Amino acid sequence: MKRLISLALAATLSLSLLAGCGSTDKPADTTAGTTTGVTTGDTTPTTTGDVTIKVAAVSTAFTDAYPEMWKDIAAAFTAETGIKVELIEDKNLEDVIGPSMQGGDYPDVVYLPYGRPGALTEQFVKEKLMADLTDVLDMTVPGEQKKVSEKLAGGFVDTSLTNPYSDGKTYLAPMFYDPCGLFYNAGLFEEKGWEVPTTWDEMWELGEKAKAEDIYLFTYPTTGYFDAFLYALLNTAGGPEFFEKVTHYEDGIWDTPEAKTVIDIIEKLASYTNPVTPAQANDQDFKMNQQLVLDNKALFMPNGTWISGEMADSPRADGFKWGMTALPAVKEGGDRYSFCWFQQSWIPSGAQNIDAAKQFIAFLYSDKAVEIFLKGGAVQPVIGAAETIADAEKKEFLSIYDNGAKAAMGGFATFKPVAGLGSVREVYLDPVNGIVSGNVTVEQWVDGIKEASAQMRENLQ
After folding, report:
1. Whole-angstrom Cα distance, residue 359 to residue 77?
2. How far apart are CA 131 and CA 29, in angstroms?
3. What does the pLDDT look like over 77-109, one tens digit per residue?
4. pLDDT digit string (tens) for 227-236?
5. Residue 341 and residue 356: Cα distance in Å, rounded?
């Protein structure tokens, strides 16, 4: 176990999921751990004795908006269950919990979603170091009468992001959801009399109009934000079936007409992208790319509904007003998609208090927790949660699926670690920087995808 975590942390430091990870050593029982009590008939675990769980939560824009968010969650959970919480919070959570995990001391609950540069969550998935959370769905939410499954909105535990092994089991608990789409300055569109494009042909026409006024059509914060964009684009080009084939690395899928549509759109979009974007597309400078939209130096960027809060104190052009739209359709009358992005919490299989940790995760879907999270702008995937949002802007963002857009959910299938094989981000997303800057051709990008996806396909979990 220690050796695997050392490998995972090495991957974090090198920003490569799979660097040096050829080991297949795993603990004998990947769901083992010292439990804190017994399980009742309704599958809700109970605890005995004086129990303290360690909860490690990455600090995000939500805690920037409401610094006491996780402290209040911990206090409410303790008040309801009697289980104490030792809270660990940091923007660079991997660096904080890493040394103790190398020594075999794991947090009991980890809130650390997919998609971070260090890819520690992805590494735990690949090495099967997460506890099975399937029984949490049948647990009664602490302090309430309903089960977790009765409170969760549909579809959130039917994706590869929560059920990564296609075995019908849930290993990651869905957290804060946000529609992702293209964000823009609605005030500028009103001023210019421009219509928001509903097809890609209209998008290119707008790109020419904007170019005439020294405004670029597009930017992006980092290539990591291209995941939601790519997922929506795949659905737009070929529907859910095509998306499923691409994300499961089907042989020959990148030679299909649908794939050519995706490739052509990304290539053309790169030519309309503000050229300063790649140099600023990193975790230190990404807000500078977001600022391009606020300064009317780029029209659209892929992002999530947290953007308005994240940039709340940033300067902006006169009359600036956030707008959000789904990706344009490939042709008139075609489907438009907005990726539904959500975060994840999980329990390391080496945690010492797995039963108590499961109670904590079940509590995250309680009405009390929903109310606390909303103070930071974080919306749990709980039925009816969005209806209580007071922020009119955010409520409008969340209504994108009520205005004709279809929801895209899911992600790339998990594959076993292979020495020398890059992560999904490195293979599919990071080359976009090179395409925009002219250092990488789309042919090189697609060739790299085909080569890597063959190995990914052969090593599916």
Report:
1. 9
2. 10
3. 999 999 999 999 999 999 999 888 888 999 999
4. 999 999 999 9
5. 28
- List beta partners, residue 300: 218
Q: What CA–CA distance (Å, rounded) separates 429 from 449?
A: 10
CA pair distance 433, 151, nearest whole angstrom: 41
Q: At what angle do helices 69-81 and 354-363 cross, to 10 degrees?
A: 110
Q: Find tokens 């506890």 and name the residue.
A: 131
Helices 93-102 + 2-14 axis angle, to 10: 150
**pLDDT over 80 at 240, yes or no:** yes
Stretch(es) of the chain classified as CATH 3.40.190.10? 2-177+342-389, 179-340+417-458
For the domain spanning 2-177+342-389, the CATH number is 3.40.190.10
Element holding 85 (H helix, E strand): strand 84-90
Q: Where are the alpha helices (DSSP H) in 48-170?
A: 61-65, 69-81, 93-102, 120-126, 148-151
**Are 53 and 353 contacting, i.e. CB atoms less than 8 angstroms apart?**
yes
Phi, psi (deg, nearest 5) at residue 350: -90, 5
Q: Tokens 């892929």 map to which residue? A: 302
Q: How is domain 179-340+417-458 classified at the CATH fold level?
A: D-Maltodextrin-Binding Protein; domain 2 (3.40.190)
d(CA 184, CA 327): 12
Around Cβ 381, how many Cβ atoms within 10 Å?
22
Tell me whether strands 337-346 and 406-408 are parallel, antiparallel or unpaired: parallel
Give the residue from 413, 380, 419 showing the smallest Cα distance to 398: 380
Distance, in Å, from the CA atom of 288 to the CA atom of 115, rounded to the nearest integer, reads 20
DSSP assignment string, 15-83: T-TTTT-------S-TT-----EEE-TTS-EEE-SS-EEEEEEE--HHHHH-TTHHHHHHHHHHHHH--
The single-letter DSSP state of residue 331 is S
Output the CA–CA distances (angstroms, integers) from residue 438 to 163, 286, 316, 426, 431, in the order listed. 38, 20, 30, 17, 10
Name the residue with tokens 């997919």: 114
Structure token digits, residue 26: 């795993």
Which residue, among 274, 297, 299, has the nearest Cα to 189 in the 3D structure?
299
Structure tokens at 324: 């959000």
- pLDDT confidence tier of residue 47, bands split at 50, 70 and 90: low
Tell me the range of 114-128, 139-153, 159-173 where mean pLDDT is highest. Answer: 139-153
Tokens of residue 233, six digits = 């684009």
